[in-house]
Structures are given as C-alpha cells and as structure tokens.
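Discussion board: Methods & Data

I've been asked by a reviewer to show the raw model output for two of the constructs in my manuscript, not just the figures. I'm not sure how much to include, so I'm pasting the format here to get opinions. Each protein appears as its amino acid sequence followed by a line of discrete structure tokens. Is this the kind of thing reviewers expect to see in a supplement, or should I convert it first? Here is construct A:
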Amino acid sequence: MLRSILLGKYRVLVFAVAAFFLVNVGVFTLNFVLLQHVERDAASINEGGKLRGYSQQLAKALLTLSHESLAGDPVQTSQAQISEAYQAFDEALAQVQAFAAAAEDHSVLEQAEKLDRQWQPLRDAAIALLGEAVPAPDAIESAVILSNTRNVRLLQLADDLTEEQERIAADRAHWMRTLQSGAIGAALLMFVFIVLHVARRLFRSDRAAEQSRREMTDILRTVREGLFLIDRNGLVGMQRSDHLAKVIPQPLAAGDNFLVTLAALVSPDTMDSARQYIELLLNERVKPALLADLNPLQRVELNRQGSARPKYLNFSFQPVRGDAGEGITGLLVAVADVSQEVRLEHELASAEERARSEVALLLQVLDNDPDDVDRFLGDARAKLDRLNTTLRDVRPDSREYAAVVTGVFRDVHSIKGEAAALSIGTVTAQTHRFEEALTGLRNRRTLTGDDLIPVATGIGHLLQELSRVEAVISRIAAFARQPADAGGGAIHAGTPAAEDGVFQSMQRIQRLALAVASDLNKKVRVETSLPHVGVIPEPVHRLLREGLPQLVRNAVVHGIEASDERRRAGKHEEGRLRIELVRSADGSLELTVADDGRGIDVHALRSRLVESGHRTAEQVAAMSDRDVVATLFEPGVSTATTVDEHAGRGVGLDVVGTLARETGARLRLASSPSEYTRFTLQWSPA
C-alpha cells in the first residue's frame, strides 16, 4: 500500500508535502539554533560587561584596606571584599572564554587573553594580601599602586571585549535572519504549490466521484432487491438500494447496526445462528463457498409485524475485501422477499401432505376392526359434544375455567390414547397439538373467558379430524360389512363384547407399545395373558380402550430403561412389559400392567412436586411415601423433565384414575426402585 502511494498518482503531492515538511523542520531547527546562539551571545556579553564592575570593585576594596591598615582598624571586611571581587572577575572571564570557545569566536578569545594577561599581576597581588591576617603596609601600598596603574587598561580591554562580542552577535543574527527568510519563502512557495496541486486533484476527483455517484444511484434505484454494505462491526453503510425499504419492514438507515435491526425481525435462535454465521464470513481463514449451505437466513420467517400473513426474506452475504493486504472489510448484503415463493411451496407441500395423509388414514382404518373404529369415533364424538356443552354452560369463574381445562385435557388425552392404540395417526397428531395449547392454559394461575376460545377452537379442529376419518370410512365399500348409523354407531353401555374383541384390543396395545419404544430407541418385549374370561362388561371394555393405552405408554416411557442403562444395571437390554386380564373364581375381573423397569423414585418425585409448583417444600416434607406416589394420579403431575408426544403432560394417570372411579374399579399401584412397577385394576362381580 505504501509503495502504491509513493509511486502512484499521489507521488508528486507526497514529495511536495515531504519537502514542505523538511523545510519547516529546517526552519524550526534554525530558529532553535538561533535561539541558542542569541542566548549564548547575550550571556557572553553580560559576563563581559561584569568585568568592568569587578575590576572597579577590586580597586575600591584595596583602597579601603589601605585606609583601615593606616588607621589600625580591622581589615577582615576589606579582605573579604577583595576575595569576592577577584573570584567574581575570574569566573566572569572564564565564562567569556568558554562562550567564545564554543562559538569559535577567535577575536573574542584574543581579547579575553589580552585581558587575562593584564589581570594576572593584579590578581596575584590581591591573593598575596589575603594570605596574612594583617597584611604588611608595604604590600598593601604596592597592591594599591598596581591597581591604579592597571585598572584603566583593564577597563579599556573590557570595553573592547564587549564591543567585539556585540559585533559578532549582530553579524550572526543578520546571517541567520537572512537564512530564515529564505527558508520561510521556500516553505511558502511549496505551500502554494501544494494547495494548487491539491485543488486541481480535488476538482478532478470530485468530478469522477460525482459521475460514480450518479451511476451508483441509477444502479441502486433500478435493482429489484435490497442491497447494502455492513462493516465488520455490523454498521450499515451510506449506499443502499431504494428497494430495501420495501423489503425490510424495519427502517435501516446509514450507521444503524444491522444485527440490532435483525434481532427485532427473527427469533432468538435464528439470531444466534446468524451472528455466528456472520462471524465465520468475516474470518479470513474460512472460505465463503464452504458456508453457503450454512446460511440460517435463507428463507427466514420474520416475526409478525401486525400482518396476518407471514413474511419470508432471503438474506445472502458476500465478503468485501479492501485494497491489497487489507483483508475483509465488511459484507455486501442482498435481501429478497420470497414470501410468495415460500407460500406456493407450502401450498404444494400441504397438498402433497394431505394426499399422503388420506392414503395413510385409509391404511390405518383398514388395519382395524370396523366395530372398534366405529366405537372409537362414536365415543370420541360424544366426549367432544359433551365438552362443547360444558364450555357453553360454564359459570364465569376462574376456578370453573381451570376445572373445565383440566376436564378437557383428560378427555383429549383419553382420545389420544385410543387413537394411538388404533394407529390412527392423524387423530393422534391433532390431539397432541391440542394438548400443547391446553398445557399453556393449565400453567396459568388465573383464566378468563377469552382463554377458553382456543379450547373451543381445538375441539372444533378435533371434530373435523374425526369427520375426515368418518368420510374415509364412508367411501370404503368393503368397510360396510356392518353399516354404521348416522350417530357414529357407538355401542350402548352394557353391551357385551366378544372375546375376540379383547384379543384384538391386546394386539393393538402390543403395536402401540412397540411403536412408542421404537420412537424412544428402546427395546421392549410385550407379553399378554388372556385366559378364558368370558363376557366382559362394557365399563371394563371402556377402560381397556381408554385407560390401557395410557398405562402401556406410561410403562414404556417412564418405566422401561434404555438398553445401555439396563445393561449397566445388570438387566437384559430388552425390557419386559406384561399385560394380564384374568377372571377369578368369584367372577371378579383383574387387569394387571407390569414392567421390569426403573420403578418409581419417590425422592425424585418429591423434588419434582416442589419444582413444578404442585406442592410446597413444607407440604412435601410432611407427606408419606404413599401420599407422594398417589399424586401421580393428579392432573399435571409428571416425572418427565421434557414434553413430547408420549409423555410430560401429566394427564395419562389422571385419565386412568378417573376411569377407575367411573367404571367402579379398585386401583392399586406397587413399585420397587430399579425393579418393577405394577398397576392393578379389579372389578367386583356384577
């Protein structure tokens, strides 16, 4: 870069500025040297002028010493004055000689040497007078005579010395002023040249910049996508395409932080990924081609900005490099609105999904006994109609609203279990979505009437899904072995079910258990024991349809461990789930669902009750283990830490407990940590 500046189009300007700088440095240096000479000359002249005074001071001190000696007065004061005078003269003369030697002023040195030769005899006489406490009168008289004879000459030589110093100082100052004036003149000429050269360059540059600006404006006004630059700190540049304001709903002005604006448009997870992606793009060691498929802002859905229809934008980034060696200075961002394209793709995918769903639904229905499907549809529709009636008649009270939500959750979960047992996946998926909405309502402390609107909507969607199943059934001629009535053909309460129906129910339960285990990457062996049980009452049949799927799902999800966990515990990697329905000699029926899994961890359940807010720490501490385990049958209590399609809602055992009460069954739960869990339901003989 430095080489291009020195040898490029700016070389004349660079050399001119360098010369101007050097001249100015020379002028400043000259001024500094001149100032030193002026200071030195002034000090030298000052010291030379002092010689006259010190010579006269010495002569006066000698006369005073003579008078005091003749009068017999003390002479110490006079001697001190003599000592001070000759020492001051020596120091001043030495300073003059030093200044002259430094400036190489030979004429001044000659004058100083003459003055020194004239001074030495008088100096020696003065020093001799100081060697004795009371000088001899003859010595004093000789010193006074020597002072009188030499003092006039000393004064004349001191005057000559001063005049010579002043002459040399004046000559030096004149020469330096001339040199300084020339340097200043050269600096002014260079400055004028630089100004004219820069003005001409600026005029040309402005004309080229204006042409470039017009062309850039035409391009940015014409392009049909949002274009702008951001620097390494994410700040938006000055140039932006006009179409940008139509694409991005948030204002994006020059100097704004692009990442801050983007954070208001996309989800936090997408924002985190986008920030990391941009950091990778700015990394010199990472090739942009390798990151193309990692862009998290391709067809990203924006947060709703008051519009009912979602908006999708496609952001693409291209690293911008500066001059040679400067590296990546920022990113060129291109934004395009792809909402229409995405909507068309979604519509096509939705149509394909509906077609696949219809085929899957057809196959699912054909895999089941028509009577079982007919009974399920009738029971599910009856439950949903009852829930609609409950919603319509509910009293305007927050506690009543909460009770309604709990009841809806329980019935929807029951429908979900039956649909899963029958492998009717579309109904299972719809109930799972409904449960997600109900979970949000159940977690609220207070509910209003408006909060029940999503409940009514969810019931409507579930009824529509049931209608789809009924429509498929009506189109299957082979399914019409036993015509269904207009109400869905539900079996009336108390109608006996044949034993082959029980076997079919157990087969569905086995398929459900294996499907759930497959989703969770677990291995399960399902064992069923169905000795001759004869005619089964409808209440028991109802629990087999609605409650048994909940118990089986609960056993696979919560009880059976993963294969590696079972191996560490010394168990066979394949879990065992046993379902047994027996009739005792007294005519009572007993249903047992047992697994050899991890059992119920009462300590963990206590912590879960406190964490979920179902009990306070004080309440849990006061509860027995039996009471803690009994909370599993309460709405919302679950040992699962996450929510998915199979667990975490805290409704499955609530459904079982409710069915046990409604069908008159006695429910028992036995469990041993790391060994087993067993649910038993017993019905007394009719």
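Construct B, same format:
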Amino acid sequence: MSAHTSHPDIPRVDARDKVRGATRYAADHVIPGLAHAWLAVATIGRGRLTSLDTEAALAVPGVRRVLTHLDTVGLRSAGFLMNGGYSVQSLQPLLDTAIAHRGQPIALVVADTLEAAREGAALVRATYEQEPHSVTMDAPGAEILPQADSPLPKPAYADKVVGDADGALSTAAVRVDTTFRGPPQHQNPMELLATVAEWSDGALTVCDPTQNAEAVRHGLARVFGLSPDKIKVFSPTLGGGFGQKNAMQAHTPLVALAARELGRPVKLVLTRAQIYDIASFRPASRHTVRLGADVSGRMVAAVHEADHQTSRHDLFPLSYAEVTSRLYGIANFRGHERLIRNDIQTPGYARAPFEHIAACAFETAVDELAYELGQDPVAFRIANDTSVDALSGQPLSSRHVVECLNRGAARFGWEKRSPAPGSMTLADGTLVGWGVAIGAYKAATAPAIARLRVTDAGAIHVSVGGHEMGQGIRTAIAATVAAELGVPPETVNVSVGNTGGVPQHLTAGSWGTATVLPTVHQAASNLMKELRQLEGNGPAGRTPQQLLRDAGKPFLEVEARHRAPGQPEAIFDRLSQGLPSAVGPVYPDYVSFSYCAHFVEVRIEPRTRRIRVPRVVSVLDCGRVISPRTARSQVFGGVIWGLGAALREESEVDPRYGGFLNADLAEYAIPVHADIGSLEAEFIDEPDPLINELGVKGLGEVVMVGVAPAIVNAIHHATGRRIRHLPIRIEDVL
C-alpha cells in the first residue's frame, strides 16, 4: 500500500492507546452494582402479541426483573430521525403488543449476571396472532409509493429533472437501457451496539456507542418526559459506526427504564444476530438507467429510476439521482425514486448510503455506452466532464475529476490495456480485466461550536461537537490546533462525543472534517489573538504556557462558532435541540462535491472461476488533506468495503419468517486478507476555494463510491459479460 501527499504525516494521536488496549468503549464502562440485561425478541414476521409468559424467566436464580409492554406506561416514541425525531425508527419496542417485524424486542430480562439474563430471556414464552408479511420488494403485500408523492420534504426528495431526458433519449444516436439490483447489506462495525445506563437523583447518565450523542440525549428526554438537562450521554470512542449508529437505538430507552426500575446501573450488549434484526441496514434497491449519446460520444440524456425498501412505519428517503445527475455534464436528466414498504425495521444509512449503489448502476451503464460507441472508457468519461453543476447550472466550488482520471490512468498503466473483452490473459489461462469508474459525494457542512482552553501548566483542551469512530477526527483536530499554536499534536487533548460540553452534532455524511476543523481553526486563531495581547514587550518565542505564567493567568479559554455558507445564526438553536443541521451539496452561490476515480484489475482463475482483485489505484479530490495518515486509512478502508460490496456482501432474507439468515460474521462474507491486493491512493490535495477557509471537504464516504462499478466493469473486460447485480459470485462468471 502506498500514497502520495504533500502535508506532514503525523501519527494518529490515539494509536498508542488503541494498540495497547487502553481505549475505553461504551461496554467497557463498569459501575459498582451493575446489572446485566438481555433481550427476548419476536419470532414472527408481523402480527400481534397475544400472551407473554415470564414465570420461568423470573425463576432463574439472579434474574431481578422482566420488563414487558405492561411496564412502559407513560413512555413514548422518540420519533424517527428523518421526521423530526431522534431514533433510528419511530417504532419504540414494548410500547404496545404490535409486532412490525421479526426480531423486534418483546421483553428485557435483567439479572445480576450476564449468564442469568441470557438464560432468562431464552425462557420467555410468547404467543402471537400472525398476519401476512412481506420482506422483499417484489413480495405480495409490498406497497409502492413514489417518493415525490410522499410527505417527505421537498425539494430534497422530489424528482431530479433538468431538460427533456425522455425526448432527448428518443432521438439519441446511441442508447443503452439497463437494470441493476443492489442487495440488502449490514454495516458490521466491530463494536456491537451497547448501552450502560445509571440514574442518580432523578438524572440519567448513559454510555452508548453513537455517532449522535445529542440524539440519544434528546431522544431519551422525549421518551421519559424529562428535560434534556437531566441527561448526559458519553460516546468518546466508537469501534466503527458507518451509519448504523447515527441515532438513538430502539434498545437504549429500555435499558434506561430497567436502570430506573431496579435502582441500579444496567448494561445491555446486543448480539450481532440481534443487531441484524433490530438496527438499520442498507436496503435492497433496483435501478433502471437509460443513457443516450450522439455519434461523437457526448452524452445527451440520462434517466435513473430507482426503487428501494422502507418500513411500514417510516419513510426512509434516499436520493440516488442527487449524485448520478451530477457525475457528468448531461443536459437532459430525469431521476425518479419509489419507496417499497415492507415488514422490516426501518432501513438506514451505510457508508455512501445511496451513492455507492447509484454510482454502481450508473457507471456500469456509462461503461456499456462507451463500448457501444467504440471509445476508451477513460477518454469517454473525460469527454463528458463538466465545470458547472448539471442539475442546477450553478458553478462548482471545485472539481478535479479529469485530473483524477489522468493521474489514475498514468499510475495504473492504462495505456497498456487491450480494449477487447477477454483479450488479456496470463500464461495459465487466467482472465485479466481492467476497469474504471468515477464517484462523487456531497461536500456537506454542519454548524459547530468549539471551546479551546490552555493552562499555565501547558495543558491544551479542545471540546467540539463530533464523534471519533475510527476515522481519525481527533488526529485531524489535534493537527489543526497544533499547527496554529505551534505545539506538538500529542499535547492537544480532544473531547468529542460528550454532551456535558458543547452540543454534539451528528457525525455522518462526510461532513465531520468540514464541520469541525474550520471551527477548531477559528478557536485556535482566537486564542492566538488573546495570547498576542499578553506578549507585551517580553521576549519573543515564548510558548502559550510561558505567556500565561508571565501574565499571572492560570488559563485562557476561547469559543468559536462556525456554520455552513448560507445558514442563518438561528441554526445554532436547532443544533442545541439535537436535530440534524447539515446542508449541502447546494449552497447559495455554488454546488460542492468530493470526487474520486478508481482503477481496478481483476483476475478470474481458469478452472475455479474465482475472482480476485490484485490491484486498485484510487485518486481522490477531497480538497485539502489535513491528516494524511488518517486520510490514507479512509481510502484503504473504503476500497476494501467496496470490494466486499461488489464480490461478497449480501444480507440473506428469509421470506418465510422474516429477518436475516446470515446474521453473523461467519456467514456474512466480508473481505479477508487473501482478497486484498495492492492498494494505492493518491490525493489531488487542492484546497477548495469556497467551501471553508481551510479548503477541506469530506473523504470517508466518497472513497466507496465507484469501487464496485470499477470491479464490475473490469469483470466485463475480462469475460465480456455484463453483470447487473451485486454481489458478483462464481456462478455469474462460470
């Protein structure tokens, strides 16, 4: 693995603690008197609970309580995050007897030991009145709702239309018409969902692995009818989030209730199998992409129609056309999405939530069109580049897609590619294919508040709204403060994921860096101004610590606020309420995206037909790179996940009973070391001149966009087969 960058490559500030096991996660929180909880869950796909026998569970030695719907009087739902609420779905288990999906919690068993709680949960007996259920998009009983006709807010979830796509398609010289299917997939962070809850004098403290500590705080306040001031949420470090942990989980209020009823702290750690049926996931989707071009190879029209799953109780919106309408300069575009309501938990966000599969459908169609025209896939993409936003006509804050393609092609050796499918083989008959695809992801930004404190003992503390889930936000913050103050990064202590400090905005959507770093940079600048006022006529070159001592000040503290371009000052009121406040890609004067280009080599063994990916070259345009080491890590992780999405990952649905069959890491296939070859990453590293003063844009999500279609296109080059679904398996290339 290698990478190129021009910025200092400082080590991760949390690396040493992580490798020696000193980093503490939510489930590591141990409190005297801690009780343990375990969930009993529904075993039907839809219906109603008619009886619940808990006697055997209560008879288990050590079991203290079994909470059911009879114990939740007075509690309410926190509401769905995407509908003004705080939870991953509006359905709060145990509030009534209705069963919306398999795996829904029906009881919480609390005991002195984990073993007793687990045994007790296994002894809970339920009977049901069952109703017909549907868990796949094409199953009987699935309901279809055009997203544009739904109550979802507009124009965000309206059809994306510019020009006359259908008219231009009908007269295009060359056309392709494709349908692509994306499977349901689960995020599978290493850290499981967990909650530790404790009450003291009517106040609640919760340790929870979340990307959105304020949603947990305000969500619990709504559930229990409390003031948010009575609740503190700590989520200092996550063992991966990837969108799964972006709101309050359904189990968290149940743990808090158990702690209140028992008068002692309670911990619950969900199993991975439970997470599959309770937490959010990437929904199944289906995409029809129609493209048209003139004889010169200029794309003149595109239509992207998409269906995806949602639950009966929530409308989970995804805007596939938001990205595909802007990948190229196509003057005539029509995007249309439909929601398919199934008997499932509400789906949610996974890395590059809709952009990954949207780009896969679109970029494989683009590749097919290039072949129909007899043009090189790289040259075809370059010829269709744009300098303005194709959907709105506004200027782009920056776009270096052509440079990404040119640099990637040179580094990959694209000029050595033989264009005919099946024309590149090794001596033993192994088929070799080279593929390319581009990707884009909105450059979003949210409001943030940062407090920076320096003491005369030399301590530097930063409190800012954000969450560390392995992406390296602490390192980027420390690097920014260190550069401004002229101190070593390891001396900067960073507090994130703690509602006891400044408001903690949801960290997702690749807006973490672009949100936090400008705010922290402003705080550091404010601090330097204050320190310069202390310098007086004393000697130059004194450290902040020396300046404070000479001035007789024990500490100096400053605060900075930063919001996205065009956002009003009132956005900070929304931030304080724990509600999502990010905007982008459309700003008042421009549109902003991050971009990438991926070049992939696949090899298909002649007898087993096993598909390997020995080499990937990725070039990223994400504005200025502040923390090269964590940026590299983001690229490699995103590429590996893209490889898994293309060749391995699918959550297998059980249409008979609902739920998922391969709900563990033994049967949910993810890439292993043998699947991962040479990964090379290069950054354009050009600051975006408009998005913020540092010129930084998001990176974590955009990396995964384009990886899967580059693999699909490489497989076509190797075999001549156009495969239009994920994942691609051996039987697809036999």
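Answer (T.O., handling editor elsewhere):
This is acceptable in a supplement if you add a one-line summary per construct. For B, something like: Residues 178 and 365 are 7 Å apart (CA to CA).
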